[in-house]
Each structure stands twice: as structure tokens, then as C-alpha cells.
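Quick note —
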Amino acid sequence: MFDIGKLNVDLPRFRARSIRAYVIAVAIMAAAAVVRVELPTLDWMPYLTFFPAVVVITLICGGAAGLIATVLSIGLAWAFFMQDPLSFDNIYRSSMFTIGAFSVIFVAAAVRHATGLVRRLNATLQQSEAKFRRLLEAAPDAMVIVDDTGHIALVNAATERLFGYLRRDLLGQPAEMLMPDVAGGELVGIRRDGGVFPIEVSHNPLQTEGGPMVSRSVRDVTARKRIELELMQASRAKTDFLSGMSHELRTPLNAVVGFAELLQMKSVGDLSPKQYEYVGHILEGGNHLLVLVTQLLDLAGIEAGRLNLSFLPVDVRAVLRYVHRLMSPLALQANVEFVLNIPLEIANAWADELRLRQVLINFLSNAIKYNHCGGQVVLTAEPVAETGVRFIVTDTGIGIPPDRTHELFQPFNRLGAEHTSVTGTGIGLAFSRKVVEAMGGTVGFTSELGSGSVFWVDFPVVSQSVPVSMPSSCVSDVFIPFAGDDALRSA
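Predicted structure written out below.
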């Protein structure tokens, strides 16, 4: 039957333009002619039975058979059922029949075409829906589709397994029965037995015929939370171990370094030249280990939250002069020009002065070591807006590969420099960033491979100037135990 609402024709139909279709069409026309012969009293309606026959033939045999049936109907009517075929009335009746039959044929063709499109669209929609359901069922995570009222419209098998409900028990229920809102923003799921477990939920909007919906992908993160807790405990244990071991190692190392220095202070005559050389090696190795242990101790302390900071107004120009005097011998030894640019007027920084010096010494040590002979390093400071001060270290060294900049502040990562003759530990930059951030500052850098790098640290400033005493002998009297690399041994 033909359903106007669904634009569907459900009639038996023969393959268009087949022999069988034409045979059936001829049989229908013959039947129509026989019936018309049995109605001799209706001469004024010669096409009485032929018009329905054309309609039926068009629907079940196709448009081509309908056109042939129309021509046969006109021929039969003019030959057997019209007294005067060329009269005005008969010509008028034939014209109306022709127009009506052609209209039926074209309308039927349009209906069949539209019906075919609808059937193909329905088939495509059903395939898409089946594919969507298969994907939904195959998803490893629990998938909960919620309508615009907050009620569950569809779930997959993983949802049944995760929450312990049957599918029919969830459809139409509010989503809060599975994922209630918890104070503090923590996402939890509730199983059928009342068990609570942490979850991770991702939301994706959906546009459907029934209105907007939201697809929620739910994942149980109990195992991940447990692993994160174990990693945190392991990291803390590692930090405590490093802290304890560093203290245990630094005490005998101080003794080794101290006695080696005493031996070097003796006259050369007390030691043979070879012995004096060996003492130098002992002192060099001891200092290297002492710097490394101190670095590990500082890094472990800041990771454990035990870094002691003393915030005071810091004279920027005095700090610049201090680190310049301290690092100048290292630059001279490396044949690197070390330029100091001191601003005429600049506010005091709010920071821990000792830690600030450590950070600048680390930057300068790297800038000198990874420079080339005859290169240049510039140390300066400048105001940042009206609330900060920036310490800047610029070098003309080897630069940093662009694809490895994300590794720069990772502990023990030297970006391939461990394969060169330049010594170092790879801890300095990691510690520098951590300690700067602990003081409320920020670290930044730019670099171009083969042209050099610029490192800077920003700190807030204080409104009033506080004098900072700096003895003239500070370079020789004050020892900063931490530096990014062991090159300070020669400073």
C-alpha cells in the first residue's frame, strides 16, 4: 500500500522493461477491453476501464509499460468504442485521457524515485545507528548518554559491569544515581552495592532527533590513584634517602678536601712533584664530589619542601657586582669576555639573596662553559613594568637545539653535553627553576642554535631601598657551595 506519510509504495512489481512486465501489461489491457465490451450502454465513456488499467500497469510494470498501455487504450477506444472518433467530444475525451494517463505515469515515477531515496536514507540511517551501537558496546570505558533533562537515555555493556546495574534498571533514571555531585569537585561513582570509587569523566555533546544529549565517558581511576600515591611515597622516600646520604657523604668529603688543601699549603719541598700532583687530583675530585653532594642535598631539600628561604630587600647592583667578581676568573680562564652592565637606578628585589646568587652563578657558569673561545657573556638587570626586576644573562655560545628545549630543566639531563669534554652534573638548571619559583619568581629563556642563549629570572621589587653591606673581600671570604656545575672550583 502507498503511505503518504512515509512516502512508501509497497506493491508487487515486475522488473521494468522486462518481457514479463510487458506480458502482464498486455494481459491487463485485454482484461480492461473485455470488461469495457460488457458495458455497451456507456458509449459516452470509452475510457472507463482503460484509465484504471493504465494506473495499475504503471504501478506494477513501470512507466514504459504505462506509456504503451496509454497508446493501446486510445487505439482500442477509437476502434471499438467510439461511433464517430473524429467528433469534438471524442477528441476531447481522448485528450483528457491522455493528459490524465501521462500525469499518473509521471507522478508514479516521481513517487517511486522519492520512495527509493527514502529507503536508501533509512538503510543508511539504520547502518549508522547499528555502527554507533557497535562502537558504543565495544568502548572499553563506561558510556552513559544523558538527555537534556539529565536522565540516562543509553548505556553500554561496560557501564553495567562498572556500576553493577542492568541496562533496563538505568534507562530513564537520573544520571546522579551513578555520578553524584560531591563537594570539593572530586568525581566519584556509586555502584549498585553502595561502593564509592574515584572516576574520570569526559563530556561530548550530541545532536539527535530527540534533542541535544551528552555522552559521558566514565573511567575507574582507582588503580591510577593508588599508583600516584605509591609514586608520591616513593619520591618522598627517595628524597629522604638522598638528603640523609648527602649529609653522611659531605662530612667525610669535607675532611678529605680539608686535608688535601693542607697538603697543598705545605712547601713543595715537603712533597715530591709527583705527590704534589696527586694531591691536586685528590683536591679536584673531592671538590667535584662535594659540589655534587651539595647539589643533591639542595635539590632533595626543595623537593621535600624543606628549603629554608630568608626574604629581604636585595640590592640588585651589589648582587651583580658580587657574581661578576666571583665568575670573572672562570671567564678569564676560558678566554670569554665577561661584560657587566649595571643599571643607574633600579629598585631592590624581594628575594633570598643567597639563593639568588646561586641561580645567577649557575646561569653564568653555563654561559661561560658552553661558549667558544673569544665569545662574550653579558650580565645585567632591568626593571619589568613597575613591579618587578629582571636579571639577564646573555651569551654567544652553542645554543640549545629547538627540539630539546622541553628537556632543559629536567634533573641530570645535559642535552647531550655529557658526551663532550665539558664537565657538569645537569642539576643546576632544575634546581634554579625550583628555587626561583619557591621565591615567587619566574625563569625564562630564549636560544638560537649556534648563536647563543639568553636566560633571565624575574622577581618582585620592594618600594624602599635598603642598603646591603658587601665587604670588599667577599669573593675570597664567602663560598657559595651550590653551582650548576663543578666549574666553580677554579674560580
